[in-house]
Specification:
The complex is a heterodimer of chains A (230) and B (218).
Chain A lengths: L8 H4 L8 E4 L9 H7 L7 E4 L11 H5 L3 E6 L6 H8 L4 E4 L2 H13 L3 E4 L13 E4 L2 E7 L3 E11 L5 E2 L8 H7 E11 L19 E4 L14
Parallel strand pairs in A: 1-2, 1-8, 2-3, 3-4, 8-10, 10-11
Antiparallel strand pairs in A: 5-7, 6-7, 8-9
Chain B lengths: L4 H9 L6 E5 L3 H4 L10 E5 L3 E4 L22 E7 L2 H9 L5 E4 L3 E3 L4 E2 L2 E2 L3 E2 L5 H7 L3 E4 L11 E2 L14 E3 L3 E6 L2 E7 L5 H6 L5 E2 L10
Parallel strand pairs in B: 1-2, 1-5, 5-10, 6-11, 10-12, 14-15
Antiparallel strand pairs in B: 2-3, 3-4, 6-7, 8-9, 12-13, 13-14
Classes of the chains: A alpha/beta (230), B alpha/beta (218).
């Protein structure tokens, strides 16, 4: 077994520098790497390009980094729910690249899977298609989309082991596995660290080969955006 | 009289076919889940990675790690499955979903849909809508017939940036049920008490009217 466990969040984020491209797993506030984001918000790192499906809310998630103006560019599919984001985007301070959600997920997967680009029907005939190659397959137009990779990917899992094997909980899985694959250095924070051998190989959601560092997280808030009950 | 948002959802629920997988968008489409007809069995997919979505949880069942694409807390039903975003969109792009119900800001008579951006005003992003409309064979739009200013949302051509081309098959509004055909909007049903003339005046695109237009049965 290759041991990837680091002792604390400071060690986990070592090497992150201003100007880097960073992926953050999560959908809304569900399954975001809370500890890593909080640590970023205490560091003097700026001009980041962040790839994340969403941009958090004003006072939580990536909203914390937006508030400190640490993000230069956001690559996302949906960025509602964040007034600070909207302000910085409309003023031109923040660059924003909006990508269809399935394309964004596939770009990450492709980046981690050695596929430099792929054709997808999503976005054909829309603004998204501009300047992209179009080809007809099965009688239908598709656009060429390129893979994404990142200097670092930060993901969040439920359980992990020192080998970096991960198990996710519920819909907190979302973008985490694909982004873990696409990071040059992938850091996984977990709610529970199990000794190697405690996770049955059959039950691993993401094999440890995609994870370079794993850290036991703490104090998870797990904020809910839309609490709905019957 | 024009029907309510709940009734739009109720009318769309009649389109559900037994043993199919269905993706519901945010807003009126979400309400469709409340009106699944007796004897019809469907499984709801949510693009953030769940198939077999159930009702909202009771207070003591809330789990922050279980949400839908609208970020609402949810439950799952027996037989449900959870997966990551790439697999979720493989289901969508790979045409494994039988029916997609979406909201819209505008629909054109050729079936183009606009629902993601108002330049200079609202730029929230398309989320999964572009992937959904590009691949789904069966798309129903649930929306009001006119916008808040009273302007038609069924147009000759979309004025807003579009989400997808020639993809909408059917539209259910507060006034009418309409099929999108190669010749234009075909009026199928009208809301109880709403006249064909009212629908015509609320529709900017080409509206094809047959000699008889029945009232919706809701």
């Amino acid at each position: 077994m290759i041991n990837k466990q680091v002792n604390n969040i400071k060690e986990a984020v070592k090497g992150v520098k201003s100007g880097m491209t960073i992926m953050f797993g999560g959908f809304g506030l569900c399954g975001i790497p809370e500890n890593s984001i909080l640590q970023f918000s205490k560091m003097e790192i700026f001009r980041l390009t962040c790839i994340s499906n969403n941009a958090g809310i004003d006072d939580f998630g990536l909203g914390l980094l937006l508030k400190r103006r640490q993000i230069k560019k956001m690559i996302s599919s949906y960025v509602g729910e964040n007034a600070e984001f909207e302000k910085q985007m409309l003023s031109g301070e923040l660059e924003v690249d909006l990508i269809p959600q399935g394309t964004l997920a596939e770009k990450c997967r492709a980046g981690g899977a050695g596929i430099p680009a792929f054709y997808t029907p999503a976005g054909y005939g829309t603004e998204i298609q501009e300047d992209k190659e179009v080809r007809i397959y099965n009688g239908k137009p598709h656009i060429l989309e390129e893979a994404l990779s990142a200097d670092f990917a930060f993901v969040k899992a439920w359980k992990g082991d020192p080998a970096g094997n991960l198990i996710f909980k519920g819909t907190a899985r979302n973008f985490n596995p694909a982004m873990a694959m696409a990071g040059k250095i992938t850091v996984a924070e977990v709610e529970e660290m199990l000794p190697a051998g405690e996770i049955h190989p059959n039950e691993v959601h993401l094999p440890g080969i995609f994870v370079q560092r794993i850290v036991l997280g703490k104090n998870y808030e797990k904020r809910i955006e839309q609490k709905t009950t019957i | 009289m024009a029907i309510s948002k709940e009734q739009i959802a109720q009318r769309i629920a009649k389109e559900l076919k037994n043993n199919t997988y269905v993706n519901l968008g945010i807003g009126i489409p979400t309400l469709v889940a409340n009106f699944v007809p007796k004897g019809i069995n469907v499984e709801f997919q949510s693009e953030n990675g769940v198939l077999g979505m159930g009702p909202f949880p009771k207070e003591n069942e809330i789990d922050p790690d279980m949400i839908n694409a609208g970020k609402q807390t949810i439950t799952t039903l027996p037989g449900a499955a959870i997966f990551d975003s790439t697999l979720s969109f493989a289901m969508i792009r790979g045409k494994h979903i039988g029916l997609t119900v979406l909201g819209a800001m505008e629909v054109s008579q050729s079936g183009d849909i606009a629902n993601w951006k108002i330049p200079g005003k609202m730029v929230k992003g398309m989320g999964g809508a572009m992937d959904l409309v590009a691949s789904a064979d069966n798309i129903i739009v649930a929306m009001m017939h006119t916008n808040k200013k009273g302007k038609s949302k069924l147009l000759k051509k979309c004025s807003l940036p579009i989400t997808g081309v020639k993809c909408v098959k059917k539209i259910v509004t507060n006034l009418a049920v309409i099929d999108v055909t190669p010749r234009g909007f075909l009026l199928l049903e009208r809301a109880p008490g709403v006249s064909v003339e009212e629908i015509k005046s609320a529709t900017q695109g080409k509206l094809i009217v047959k000699s008889q237009t029945p009232e919706m049965n809701i």
